[in-house]
Amino acid sequence: MDGGIFYSKIKGAYMKQKEIIDEITMKRAITRITYEIIERNKEMDKLVLVGIRTRGVYLAQRIQERLKQLEGLDIPLGELDTKPFRDDKQAENDTSEIDVDVTGKDIILVDDVLYTGRTIRAAIDGLVHLGRPARVQLAVLVDRGHRELPIRADYVGKNIPTAHDEEIIVQMTEHDGQDSILIASDN
Ligand SMILES: O=P(O)(O)OC[C@H]1O[C@H](OP(=O)(O)OP(=O)(O)O)[C@H](O)[C@@H]1O
Ligand SMILES: O=c1cc[nH]c(=O)[nH]1
C-alpha cells in the first residue's frame, strides 16, 4: 500500500484502488438516511423497505435496524432481484423475496450505488409486477452521477463525483468482510 492506494483485480483486470469512505463515515451516512426517512414519512405504518440484491439488501437491513433502535418500528423488508427486468440481459430466475403486499404501500427502494439508473428502472418494473405501491422512494449510499435515465434518489448517503472510467466499490461486512467505499481506476 502507498498512501492508501493499492492494486487488485476487478472483473479480471488489475485496477488502482483507494478507500474514500471509511467504516465510521459509512455508518454515519446510513444513520443520516434513516433520520431523513423518519422526517419525511408521516405514515410509517405504510413503509416497506425493498433492498436491491446484492448489497442493497444489507443496506436495507441496516436501515431497518436503525428504525427499530430510533423509533421502535418494525418495518417490513423485501429483497428484490432486478435481473429478470433488465434491458441488457436475458431473463433469469427471479430470486426476489417480497412477502408483503406492496399495493397501497410507501416503498423505499434501497441500493448501494446509483450510476446510470438502469438498475433502478428495472427495480421499479419488478415492483409494479407485484402490485401498485402508493409511492416509491429511492435511498442510495452513493450517487456517482452519469445518469442515462431520468431517475434521482430521495436519500443519498454520499455524492461522489466520478469519471466514466472509474468504479465505485461498496464493501459491506455481511458480504465482503468489511465496511468501506473504494474508488477504482485503471490508471
Ligand atoms: O445505476 P446502474 O448503472 O444500474 O448501476 C448501479 C448498480 O450497479 C451495481 O450492481 P451490480 O449490477 O454490479 O450487481 P451487484 O450489486 O450484485 O454487485 C450496484 O449495486 C447497483 O445496483
Ligand atoms: O461504479 C459503479 C457503477 C455501478 N455499480 C457499482 O457498484 N459501481
Task: Give a quick rundown of the structure.
The chain is an alpha/beta fold and 187 residues long. Helix content is 28%, strand content 32%. It has a single domain (21-185), classed as Rossmann fold (3-Layer(aba) Sandwich).
Give, in spatial order, the strands making up the sheet with the most strands. Answer: 4-3-5-6-7
The hetero compounds bound to this protein are: 1-O-pyrophosphono-5-O-phosphono-alpha-D-ribofuranose, uracil
Overall radius of gyration: 17 Å
Helix content: 25-40%
Shape: globular
Give me the number of helical elements. 4
The helix-strand sequence is EEHEHEEHEEEHE
Q: Report the CATH C-level class.
A: Alpha Beta
Give your account of this protein's structure.
GO terms for molecular function: RNA binding; uracil phosphoribosyltransferase activity. Homodimer and homohexamer; in equilibrium. Keywords: Glycosyltransferase, RNA-binding, Transcription, Transcription regulation, Transcription termination, Transferase. The model has no long low-confidence stretch (mean pLDDT about 95). The longest helix is centred in the N-terminal third of the chain and has 18 residues. The two termini are about 15 Å apart. This protein has four helices and nine strands, in the order E-E-H-E-H-E-E-H-E-E-E-H-E. It is globular. It has a single domain, classed as Rossmann fold, CATH 3.40.50. With about 190 residues, the protein is an alpha/beta fold. A five-stranded parallel beta sheet has the order 4-3-5-6-7. A four-stranded antiparallel beta sheet has the order 1-2-9-8. The structure holds 1-O-pyrophosphono-5-O-phosphono-alpha-D-ribofuranose and uracil. 1-O-pyrophosphono-5-O-phosphono-alpha-D-ribofuranose binds next to strand 5 and helix 3. Uracil (URA) binds next to strand 8.
